Amino acid sequence: MPTNAPGNIQPSEITPRAVYLQRRRFLQVAALSAAAGWLPLSAEAGVKLTTTGKSPLSTSEPPTPLKEITHYNNFYEFGVDKFSPAQRAGSLITHPWNVAVEGEIRRPNVYSIETLMKLAPLEDRIYRLRCVEGWSMVIPWVGFPLNALIRQVEPTGNAKFVEFTTLYDPEQMPGQRSPVLSWPYVEALRLDEAMHPLTLLAVGLYGEVLPNQNGAPLRLVTPWKYGFKSIKSIVNIRFVEHRPTTTWMKASSREYGFYANVNLHIDHPRWSQAKERRIGEFFKRDTLLFNGYAEQVASLYRGMDLKKHF
Amino acid sequence: MLGWVKAVVFFLSLAPLARLGWLGVHGGLGANPIEFITHSLGTWTLVFLLLTLAITPLRRWLHVPALVRLRRMLGLYAFFYAALHFVPYLWLDQFFDWAAIAKDVVKRPFITAGFAALLLLAPLAATSTTGMIRRLGAKRWQRLHYLIYPAAIVAVLHYLWLVKQDLTQPLFYAAALAILLGYRVAGHFRRRWRSADT
Predict the structure, then answer these.
(1) Which of B31, B50, B51, B47 is nearest to B85 (CA)?
(2) Domain tally, chain B
(3) Are B30 and A277 in contact (CB < 8 Å)?
(4) Which residue range forms the structural domain that includes residue B79?
């Protein structure tokens, strides 16, 4: 009788999950260190990034301290409270990391994070970030405009929207075991929004590679929209003809629309959007239309009923 | 003996406030300390409301009728934490803009519910003294104090409606409240059946 028939495996012979995961991580880290010898660019959090300097699109407001930006995060893949991502995002392996770019484009491709980081010169962009919950920060991102990537992949005439998807791996992202949202996280922009010079693919923060809890190694930043549009840890960028249904629309389409533009006049059904608490400030301040970027982006929505297309 | 127990409960009930103070001094309130404090005070209001409502079933289960002597203090703590919970909203969010507050209360279900809970609890706190019980008469006083039931219900609704997506926490409080109110409803029907039998 074969001794390794399924029924004969002793519980003691099964590798405990934690050990198995550790082993996997060890192999990945080992492969990474071997590769690091010849890689021109490492994508580990904290590594200094070379940039072309501060972009003129930056705000002159004082940036929120790094400690706050990295310890007050909405990243449900690591838990639903603001403190969990900083504590738990260490389990995310950001290297190696590939991003599939596909759909209605002439040059579909799978990009490694290293290739993406060299796709266009990295810039420092200090942007306001306004969360749909009513708080805000000023964040010095490092990244490059999404339109640099879009030009390279050559969208076809059918490409009307760009859909982004976060990694799905409950072993690395334990929050995905909870059904609080439908996983993986999906966000999308209209093609002209995606092409807008303000739309950033961020790879860094405060001049260094993004910490995991902030969406490493690659995240979107759309500063005139509520924070949840700025999807984190992207593995897929897909050009499509029809408007995708995003994760928060699925969760509650009455409360979260496709556009999610910051708008003080359109309240969340349950709370006001007229004011916000800037992290580090005592009193609330008035929220600005399109989060203060109206001059640059209002033309994208000309003629649209913003009450309907919220 | 009772004096000792009361003193211990009195100081234990201040622990949530002391903890906030300690965290504040040691920079432990996180990036958004005002939100942290507000949420914490709200949570403790719910805890004290539920504790107050748990006294009656507990004294029967445990056969310790004297527990009722703690009820007034727990109820007053519920109001104390509710009032403190309201301060950041009044001062930091709205800066005493009464017109804006009135609009907010009318327009936002979760604010409406929270504000209603505070209003319902206020007369209970005001009539908590032995003198007031005497003045109102036990019967009327008791009828007035049934207001704790709607107060607790709207307090839980306030939490349920506020949460963005993950309802685990508010549903936990809703379940605890349902048990405590269910106990009373069951008792009510048991008494009616019994009186119908005789």
Answers:
(1) B47
(2) 1
(3) no
(4) 2-197
- Strand A208-209 vs strand A200-205: parallel, antiparallel, or unpaired? antiparallel
Nearest chain B CA: its distance from A130 CA (Å): 14
CB contact (8 A) between residue B161 and residue A180:
no
Tokens of A114: 């290293």
Instruction: Give the N- to C-terminal CA distance of chain B in Å, as an integer.
Output: 41
SS3 A129: strand
Segment 105-164 of chain B within 8 Å of chain A by CB = 107-110, 161-162, 164
pLDDT tens per residue, range A51-65: 999 999 999 999 999
The token pair at A243 is: 């408007």
Summarised one tens digit per residue, pLDDT across range B50-98 is: 999 999 999 999 998 889 999 999 999 999 999 999 999 898 888 888 9
How many Å apart are CA A218 and CA A235, to the nearest integer? 8
Query: Which residue among A180, A272, A282 sits closest to B166, beta carbon to beta carbon?
Result: A180
Alpha-carbon gap, residue A228 to A234, rounded angstroms: 13
Delineate the domains of chain A, giving CATH numbers in brackets.
41-252 (3.90.420.10)
pLDDT at A33 over 90: no
Q: What is the CATH number of the domain that holds B193?
A: 1.20.120
